[in-house]
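Protocol step 4 of 6: structure prediction from sequence.
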Amino acid sequence: MKRAPAVARQRTRVPRGDLARTTFGVLFLVALLGAALWVVRPFIGPAIWATMVVVASWPLMLQVQRRLFNRRGLAVAVMTLLLLLLFVVPLALAIVTIVGNADRLIEWAKLLAEMHLPALPPRWLVALPMVGDVLERGWQQAAVLGMHDLLPKLSPYAGDVTRWFVAQVGSVGFLLLQFLMTVVIAAVMYASGEAAADLVRRFARRLGGERGAGVVDLAGGAIRGVALGVGGTALVQALISGLGLLIAGVPVAGLLTALTFMLCIAQIGPVLVLVPAMAWAFWSDNTAGGVLLVVVALVVTTLDNVLRPLLIRMGADLPLLLIFSGVIGGLLAFGLVGIFIGPVVLAVAYTLLEAWMADGEPEQGDAGPAAVTPPPPAD
């Protein structure tokens, strides 16, 4: 009877071979996962882009499907064509135009060094309401610094920035192939969007319960808000700027419009395009065109503070500072696709942090032990 516990302990003891088997099993799974990621590595970028586009445009796809007699195949075909016309073609043309005119951009940077800034600003510039005094002081400070000596020092950096942008864009043919892969993957996601969303929710629910499923919905809202806010605002700013450049008679207005769109997507803004265009207009005695570009610059700059927050709020009810930090930080960390990845990561982290802090707070109506009514005093 005394040997029974010892026998039981011997039976429950883990054999020595199980540790090695578990270790080799984990190593095999890690190697298998690494090999799978290596195989799909060329498709990771297009898959991320396609996911962002599909999530952002999914409500529009459902509306198109309802108008096409609930035929998913027709809706997928229409959305794929819209992606080609509204997303791939303009972005590809913008990048191709910028890359094709890279030498011209470098020459412009060199010609900028030959400009001479007069000591006194034009009278119409000083007469502008509210901003005339500020522009006059800025003009005088620039003239005192000596633009003729300053710009030659800045022009090599301008050329380096242009060459860096061209290097980041890379091969145009490879980029177009990436865009085509993005459209194909997006078409597949449109066709089976509900199944993919259900799979992601099941995985998130397995990790974090119902809160994990809520995080998935939050990520979708963040993607939709950033796509509407950043992409929509950049498109409107580029169209208004391009129209102003065309009316003002600025050369290569199409190239400058494409460059404006890319700068707005990168959260730099259209000022780097509009300010040199203003200088060219006034330098060419095109006062009306210069004044028009000043008005256009004020309008498109104001859109950042009016239109973008409104569009972001339509997609995700998150702090604007969080969204802007995610956009800029994601752009610096992951490149162009980081515009969407950064806000999603910060939104998920912010939500999980809020949920964690809420778990430690007492529920409404529960004041804790300190609020327990003391017994009445004895008579």
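Step 5 (inspection) to follow. Residues 206-357 form one domain.
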